[in-house]
């Protein structure tokens, strides 16, 4: 079946935004890693950077297989690119203006912001892969299965890091690595339970 049978305008726009989100995420992680004071966090972000590079290739493959130009800058993609530029610039500013610990927190906040959009993209693609036409399901199924769980880790685990780094900065006992990381949570419910149980990890 041709491209028209797989993609409508909205799904095409989402794929271009997803590609730009991954490309922006690569730049965010590259900058964030330079701010990581905690060795476990640096290792985690280095792993996520490599996974994000692979996710970029997955989305590129989807666009190419659909006969679309992966270099096309759509209006939606341009907006996402601006967000990525702002996050990278924010991390650079934090490195220049604050302490290493403060820059690490800002970097974690920027990773969470980037991964919130990234996670939303893949949730939507998963929805299409489940509810869409037969052609859309076949087109997206393998990509979603390959990427979605890793995106859960990126978002929920980094949110845990951000929270615990802030708690540490505020002068309270922190759980590092965070309970989300220790429990390897993969769902919002799991992340919520890990946060509620954080005192058990003290």
For this entry, give a set of tags.
202 residues; 79% helix; 8 helices; mainly alpha
**Number of helical segments with 4 or more residues:** 8
Q: Rg to the nearest angstrom?
A: 18 Å
- What is the molecular shape? globular
> What string gives the helices and strands in order?
HHHHHHHH
Strand content: under 5%
Largest sheet: none
User: What is the typical, i.e. mean, pLDDT?
Assistant: 93
| Total strand segments | 0
Helical content band: over 70%
Poorly predicted runs: none
Structural class: mainly alpha
Report on the architecture of this protein:
By secondary structure, this protein is mostly helical. Helix content is 79%, strand content 0%. It has 8 helices and no strands. The chain has helices at residues 3-6, 9-33, 39-65, 75-97, 100-131, 134-169, 179-182, 188-196. Helix 2 packs parallel to helix 4. The longest helix has 36 residues, at 134-169. The mean pLDDT is 93.
Describe the structure concisely for a colleague.
This protein has about 200 residues and is mostly helical. The chain is about 80% helix and about 0% strand.
